[in-house]
Amino acid sequence: MRVLFDTNVILDVLLNRESFVVNSSLLMGHVEKKDIEGYLCATTITTLDYLLLKALNKRESRAGIRKLLSLFKISDVNSTVLDLSVNSDFSDFEDAVQYFSGVCSEVDALVTRNTKDYKNTELPIYIPDELLQIIRLNIVTKA
Q1: Statement: the pTM of the whole predicted model exceeds 0.85
Q2: Of 13, 6, 1, whose CA–CA distance to 92 is shortest?
Q3: Domains in the chain, please, with CATH?
Q4: Is the pLDDT of residue 143 over 70?
């Protein structure tokens, strides 16, 4: 299963957001174990660096980015993605870019804590809890 991770799910882990870190970390663990193929939008990396530098020092921020680049594949942001995004019904351009970056990378789903930002989309949109249940079912089925 190829899954695009929304920026908020990654931030949960990198910033140790108490209410969300457990499930988001478990999902990243499934990427690390190759139970799923994790994707990040190229713009997510720059956004993460910007936000991490506000919370951490440069060395810690870059270490986090390096780790992500070793775990995740990066979905492109190109003229096709931007054209689809600007002409979409998304109210938030950043969400549209992230979504269409995933679509163009042929991911199977997107995981986010903000499902309301992805209404009327073709890709399945999951919250971390839902995706964890699906992954567990797939692992049990394969065993």
Answers
A1: yes
A2: 6
A3: 2-142 (3.40.50.1010)
A4: no
